[in-house]
């Protein structure tokens, strides 16, 4: 595998590692507030509903619907540009929170707001896996 | 000693030509702007008692105590006042509120706001477009940038949702760029004015950058500088050089840092809160506004800004802008010097939008003058609708 030259997370605090570890294990786990039961993403140290700082890393269905999207044609770096055009999606997950990711599709023109998608994983190197979505 | 309660006003403004200033140093441009605003006010740099935001870059003044670095190290004397606003690229414009507060309460008699981008910096203020785009992409967190997000894609996803919910079209977005380019052609310091007029067709046929935003929906990438000096309104009147333009009302709205925390990506409550407070404090209505300056990193920004300000209902901004409503002579002339799209997107570029409003309200906007402009609405946004401010400007 050629060296991965897109952006990888930098400066992640240790407490956020369980999310990235779960991607590497192809078994996504997201923070679930121990105070009120709400899922949240991206990881935060506090719940914005009940202000509890206790949370567990909990499995989710991995399915959702496209809330909004774009097709990136002018990418941030040459490594991303090599894959352009590519689709970025904000997905309304079944559990009621939104996640951002990229959507794997053959033809970006077929993407629609409201379409069903599910999580997949891209193993980019020995240490990191990245969350993606694919049409469900 | 009691707090002084006195009225503040803009005493001086200054702008450099906007474009590639890589052959000049940042401090040189900073001082040109600072002195220029003082000269416009009939004052000198020695009169400055407060600075909003940062001083010039340079040896010995990088500090965790930003105000301390501006005293003896920079000005050769103690500085009475320093503060910074946090509204992203609008921080210099929202800094007007801090400058006015300092003058009105007696903390300082003359307060300067400067924005200067020049030289050959690395990163997001680079004159090199590729470098600037790559650096700006990483301003978001790892939960976004690993997927190859860009500043354009951040706004493109919002635009796509607005189109989905309200039927907004690319042609409607293009109206913003067309109106603003016209203004830029009438401003000799603008970055894109020399390129001439554009049409709706030009915008929708320009290269797609991130659907649905085309190249001409996107702000410029350039360098440049500008400054504003605030003193008491009495000082401005005594100088007799300019009509005293002041802050009639002001409000802020801080929304979210994580886009997934925002309840909606098609309409935004925080900027509406900012606008409502600004109008309430000013005691003027939407109908009283003659000219506007609305944050416009992308054309869609202006549509969000119009809705949040209440110039039209949520979802109706596309119809509102159709037919040249934002052009000089239109229903609500907006960003009449060209905005970030066509005038300048250098650094804390909200200052340029504010300076144009000040010129309009002084009645000195020349070929761009909106006749009888008495009340101006100013808005600026940090990030992708993540925080914002609103202000009402007028003569005091
Ligand atoms: Zn909770």
Automatic annotation (TrEMBL), chain A:
It comes from the Bacteria. Residues 20-53 form the ChsH2 rubredoxin-like zinc ribbon domain. Residues 57-121 form the ChsH2 C-terminal OB-fold domain. It holds the Pfam family OB_ChsH2_C. InterPro entries: ChsH2_C, ChsH2_Znr, NA-bd_OB-fold, Thioester_dehydratase-like. This is Zn-ribbon domain-containing OB-fold protein.
UniProtKB/TrEMBL annotation, chain B:
InterPro entries: Thiolase (IPR002155), Thiolase-like (IPR016039), Thiolase_C_2 (IPR055140). It comes from the Bacteria. Residues 251-394 form the Thiolase C-terminal domain. CDD domains: SCP-x_thiolase. GO terms for molecular function: acyltransferase activity, transferring groups other than amino-acyl groups. Gene3D superfamilies: 3.40.47.10. PANTHER family: ACETYL-COA C-ACETYLTRANSFERASE, NON-SPECIFIC LIPID-TRANSFER PROTEIN-LIKE 2. This is Thiolase C-terminal domain-containing protein. The lineage of its organism: Bacteria, Bacillati, Actinomycetota, Actinomycetes, Kitasatosporales.
């Amino acid at each position: 595998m050629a060296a991965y030259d897109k952006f990888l997370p930098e400066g992640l605090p240790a407490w956020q590692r369980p999310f990235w570890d779960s991607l590497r294990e192809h078994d996504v786990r997201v923070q679930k507030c121990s105070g009120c039961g709400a899922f949240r993403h991206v990881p935060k140290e506090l719940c914005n509903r009940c202000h509890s700082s206790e949370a567990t890393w909990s499995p989710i269905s991995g399915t959702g619907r496209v809330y909004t999207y774009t097709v990136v044609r002018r990418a941030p770096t040459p490594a991303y540009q090599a894959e352009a055009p590519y689709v970025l999606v904000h997905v309304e997950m079944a559990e009621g929170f939104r996640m951002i990711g990229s959507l794997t599709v053959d033809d970006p023109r077929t993407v629609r707001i409201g379409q069903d998608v599910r999580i997949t994983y891209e193993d980019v190197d020995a240490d990191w896996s990245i969350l993606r979505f694919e049409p469900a | 000693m009691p707090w002084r309660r006195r009225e503040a006003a803009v005493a001086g403004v200054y702008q450099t030509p906007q474009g590639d200033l890589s052959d000049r140093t940042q401090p040189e441009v900073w001082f040109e702007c600072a002195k220029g605003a003082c000269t416009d006010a009939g004052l000198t740099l020695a009169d400055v008692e407060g600075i909003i935001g940062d001083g010039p870059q340079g040896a010995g003044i990088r500090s965790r105590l930003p105000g301390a670095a501006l005293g003896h190290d920079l000005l050769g004397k103690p500085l009475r006042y320093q503060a910074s606003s946090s509204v992203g690229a609008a921080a210099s414009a929202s800094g007007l509120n801090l400058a006015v507060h300092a003058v009105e309460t007696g903390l300082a008699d003359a307060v300067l706001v400067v924005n200067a981008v020049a030289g050959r910096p690395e990163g997001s203020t680079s004159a090199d477009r590729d470098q600037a785009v790559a650096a700006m992409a990483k301003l978001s967190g790892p939960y976004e940038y690993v997927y190859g997000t860009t500043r354009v894609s951040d706004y493109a996803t919002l635009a796509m949702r607005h189109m989905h919910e309200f039927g907004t079209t690319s042609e409607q977005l293009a109206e913003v760029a067309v109106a603003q380019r016209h203004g830029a052609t009438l401003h000799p310091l603008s970055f894109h004015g020399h390129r001439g007029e554009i049409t709706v067709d030009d915008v929708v046929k320009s290269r797609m950058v991130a659907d649905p935003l085309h190249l001409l929906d996107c702000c410029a990438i350039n360098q440049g500088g500008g400054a504003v000096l605030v003193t008491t309104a009495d000082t401005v009147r005594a100088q007799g050089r300019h009509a005293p333009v002041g802050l009639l009302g002001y409000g802020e709205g801080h929304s979210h840092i994580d886009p997934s925390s925002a309840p909606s990506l098609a309409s935004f409550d925080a900027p509406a809160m900012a606008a409502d407070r600004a109008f309430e404090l000013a005691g003027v209505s939407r109908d009283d506004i003659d000219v506007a300056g609305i944050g416009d990193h992308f054309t869609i920004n202006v549509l969000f800004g119009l809705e949040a300000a209440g110039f039209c209902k949520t979802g109706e901004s596309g119809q509102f802008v159709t037919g040249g409503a934002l052009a000089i002579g239109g229903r609500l002339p907006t960003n009449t010097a060209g905005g970030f799209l066509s005038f300048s997107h250098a650094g804390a570029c909200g200052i340029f939008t504010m300076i144009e409003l000040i010129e309009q309200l002084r009645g000195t906007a020349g070929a761009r003058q909106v006749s009888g402009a008495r009340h101006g609405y100013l808005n600026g946004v940090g990030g992708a609708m993540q925080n914002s401010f609103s202000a009402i400007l007028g003569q005091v």
